[in-house]
Specification:
The chain is mainly β. It folds into 2 domains: 120 residues, Outer Surface Protein A, domain 3 (Alpha-Beta Complex), CATH 3.90.930.1; 96 residues, Immunoglobulin-like. 9% of the residues lie in helices and 51% in strands. The protein is built from 3 helices and 19 strands. A hairpin with a 2-residue loop joins strand 9 and strand 10. It is elongated, with a radius of gyration of 28 Å.
Length: 245
C-alpha cells in the first residue's frame, strides 16, 4: 500500500515530467522557448524551438538513440516547410519542401558521400517536369525513354479509332494520362488516367456514322526511374477521324 500512496501524493504536487526528474529519469525540459525530449536512458531524443503561441518555429532535430542525427524539420509558426533525413555519417539523404503539409517545392536526394543524386520539383504533392538525376561521379543523366503517341485507324474495319500512349523503353514503368499539366509542369487531379493494355495506355474512340473529328489531344507520361523518381513528359496529338463515308 505504501508503494501506491507515494506516487499518488507526488502526482498531486508535481507534473509527470517533474516526477520523472525527481526519480532521475528526465523525459523533457524547456528553457527560453527551447524544448528538449530525452530517451529513457537520458540521451537526447529531440530538440526544437517554439514561438509565443507554443507553435514549433525554426529548426527541429530528431536524434537516434546512439546520438546521431536522424531528421531535421524547419517550421514557420507551426507549419512544416522543410524536412531533411540523414545518413549515419551525417550527410543528408533527402531534402523535401512542404506547404500545407504536402510536398511543394524542391525535392532532393543525395548519395551517401554528400553528392547530389537527383533534384525534382513538386506542387501540391504532384511531381513536375524537369527531373535531373546524377551519377555518383556528378555527371548529369541525359537518356530517358521517349513518350510515343500512336494512332491506329480501324474505322473501315470495325468503326474504331485507337490511340496508344507508351514509353519506347520499359513501358511497364509508365503511367499514362489524358489532359494537360498544371502550369505546363505538374501532374494534377484533372488528369484522367488511361486504361492500360499490354503496358500501354489506350484510348478507344467509336465515332457515330457521318461524323468528322478534328481535334488536338494532349497526353502525359509518368515514368518511374530505377531510383524511384518520377520523370514527367507530355505530348500532343492531332486527331483526325473521317467517318462520313
Amino acid at each position: 500500500m505504501k508503494n501506491l500512496i507515494l506516487p499518488l501524493v507526488l502526482c498531486l504536487l508535481f507534473s509527470c515530467d517533474q516526477i520523472n526528474s525527481l526519480r532521475g529519469n528526465k523525459i523533457a525540459e524547456e528553457a527560453d522557448n527551447v524544448v528538449k525530449n530525452y530517451y529513457p536512458d537520458g540521451e537526447l531524443k529531440s530538440i526544437y524551438t517554439v514561438n509565443e503561441l507554443r507553435q514549433k518555429h525554426g529548426v527541429a532535430k530528431i536524434y537516434k538513440k546512439d546520438g546521431t542525427l536522424s531528421k531535421a524539420f524547419e517550421y514557420e509558426n507551426g507549419e512544416k516547410i522543410k524536412a531533411i533525413s540523414y545518413y549515419k555519417n551525417g550527410n543528408p539523404l533527402m531534402e523535401i519542401s512542404y506547404k500545407n503539409d504536402v510536398k511543394d517545392g524542391p525535392f532532393k536526394r543525395f548519395y551517401e558521400n554528400g553528392k547530389l543524386e537527383s533534384e525534382a520539383i513538386f506542387k501540391e504533392n504532384f511531381p513536375g517536369k524537369g527531373l535531373k538525376e546524377y551519377t555518383s561521379s556528378g555527371s548529369l543523366k541525359k537518356h530517358y525513354p521517349e513518350l510515343i503517341v500512336k494512332g491506329i485507324d480501324q474505322i473501315n474495319l470495325n468503326g474504331r479509332y485507337i490511340i496508344e500512349v507508351y514509353f519506347d523503353k520499359n513501358p511497364g514503368r509508365g503511367t499514362y494520362y489524358i489532359g494537360s499539366l498544371t502550369e505546363d509542369t505538374f501532374l494534377n487531379y484533372r488528369l484522367d488516367e488511361m486504361e492500360r493494355v499490354n503496358y500501354r495506355g489506350r484510348l478507344v474512340i467509336t465515332p457515330a456514322p457521318g461524323v468528322i473529328i478534328m481535334e488536338k489531344l494532349n497526353f502525359v507520361g509518368e515514368f518511374k526511374t530505377p531510383t524511384g523518381n518520377k520523370y514527367i513528359v507530355e505530348k500532343s496529338f492531332n486527331l483526325a477521324i473521317d467517318n462520313s463515308f
